[in-house]
Every structure is written in C-alpha cells, then in structure tokens.
C-alpha cells in the first residue's frame, strides 16, 4: 500500500491540476506553487434573483468564518497535520466548513485529507466530529458503511469527489484493508484502476540493502 503523499509531490501534483500538464514541464521549477499562492483572486459570480425570495430571512447573528482561513484549513488538510490541529483549535467552526474552488467544486478538510490518503488527519477530524461521507468511508476501508451508502443510493457508485476526478475506486486504493474495499467496489462496477501517480511507492523488497555511507 502506498504511503501518504509528501508535501513536495502534493505541490507539484496540485499545480498540474490547477494549471494543466504544462505545470510539470522541463521549463518549470521543481516545486510548483500551491493553489493559494497563485496570482488569482476568488470572485463571487454575479447573481440577481429572477424569482420570488424565500419567505424566511436568515438573521445572520454571527459573522461567517473568514474565507481565507477556510481556504488555508482545507489546503493544510491535504498534507499538514500540525497546521490542521493548530487552526482547528483556533477556530473549531472550521471542522465542517467547505471551500468553493469555483463552479461548484466544493471541498472540505475531510474531503482533502481523504483523497490524499492522509489516514492520520482523517482519523483526527472524525474524532473531532467531522461528517463522514462515502468517499472517506472508502478510503478508510469501512466496507459496511460504503455498502450502506450504495444501498441507499446506488448511483453513488459513479459519484465524483472534489475536483471531479477522485472517484470511489481511487479512494479505495488508499484503504489499508488489503484491497477488500476496492474489490467490493469492483464487484459493484468494474472499471480500469490505474496506479496513483501522486502516492509514494513502497520500497522494492527485492532490492539489495544499500551499503552505509
């Protein structure tokens, strides 16, 4: 089973998703920028009601959590356990917040940790009360939960996670259950499962041990 992604690989992989494959070309620095350092500014899409407003008006007694703080928390949840703990202690309300990366691509900290195979961060967030979903359950190898979700809604077998390309089978590849969850999902719907390019591969046990320097 591959090990969780490291920060260097995550930075390059994320940049390739945000910027396209050109981000990893030979003319690009070894470590590509993280999404929140890119020279882009989040903007809210324009909107005007063309329908009657709802009969209930929210009171807005409390301010919303700062969007930059939510963004950082979700990004750190992909690869930095210490910062996740630090920010959640600072603002417990971050636990179930989500970041809209645009066009409805919504991601929570639990989502990010799940699709990067960070079992340690996922377990911490769940212990703090994060709301588990089918993607997290697949990554954690919780077959009974995955089966229950699919019994309730069979179409979830085709569901896409954050960013549109982390499906259930991908999450199950990161489960530490000897492939049981992935085998179950394949029994429900068989698809081509490719190796995860952004996960560190375990050392080849057939290689001779290296001599000490």
Q: Layout of helices and strands, plus pairs?
A:
Blueprint: H1 7-19, H2 67-76, H3 81-90, E1 98-100, E2 106-108, H4 109-115, H5 119-127, H6 134-139, H7 143-152, H8 168-173, H9 180-188
Antiparallel strand pairs: 1-2
Shape: globular
Sheet-strand content, in percent, reads under 5%
Number of helices: 9
Number of strand elements = 2
Strand order of the largest sheet: 1-2
Helix content: 25-40%
Terminal CA distance reads: 29 Å
Average pLDDT score: 83
Poorly predicted sequence stretches spanning 5 or more consecutive residues: 15-39, 202-207
Structural class designation: mainly alpha
Helix-strand string: HHHEEHHHHHH
In this structure, how is the largest beta sheet organized? 2 strands, antiparallel
Q: What would your notes on this structure say?
A:
This protein is mostly helical and 213 residues long. The chain has a domain at 132-196. The chain has nine helices and two strands. The protein has helices at residues 7-19, 67-76, 81-90, 109-115, 119-127, 134-139, 143-152, 168-173, 180-188, and strands at residues 98-100, 106-108. Strand 1 and strand 2 (106-108) form a beta hairpin.
């Amino acid at each position: 089973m591959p090990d969780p992604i490291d920060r260097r690989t995550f930075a390059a992989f994320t940049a390739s998703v945000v910027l396209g494959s050109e981000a990893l070309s030979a003319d690009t620095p070894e470590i590509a920028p993280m999404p929140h350092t890119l020279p882009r500014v989040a903007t809210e899409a324009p909107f005007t009601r063309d329908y009657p407003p709802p009969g209930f008006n929210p009171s807005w007694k409390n301010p919303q959590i700062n969007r930059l703080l939510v963004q950082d928390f979700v990004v750190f949840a992909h690869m930095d356990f210490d910062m996740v703990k630090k920010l959640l202690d600072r603002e417990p309300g971050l636990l179930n917040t989500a970041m809209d990366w645009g066009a409805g691509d919504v991601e929570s900290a639990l989502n990010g940790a799940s699709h990067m195979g960070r079992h340690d961060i996922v377990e911490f967030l769940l212990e703090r009360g994060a709301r588990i979903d089918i993607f997290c359950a697949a990554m954690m190898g919780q077959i009974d939960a995955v089966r229950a979700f699919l019994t309730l809604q069979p179409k979830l077998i085709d569901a896409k996670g954050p960013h549109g390309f982390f499906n259930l089978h991908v999450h199950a590849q990161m489960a530490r259950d000897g492939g049981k969850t992935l085998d179950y999902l394949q029994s429900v719907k068989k698809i081509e499962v490719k190796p995860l390019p952004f996960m560190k591969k375990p050392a080849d046990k057939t290689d001779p041990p290296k001599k000490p320097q």
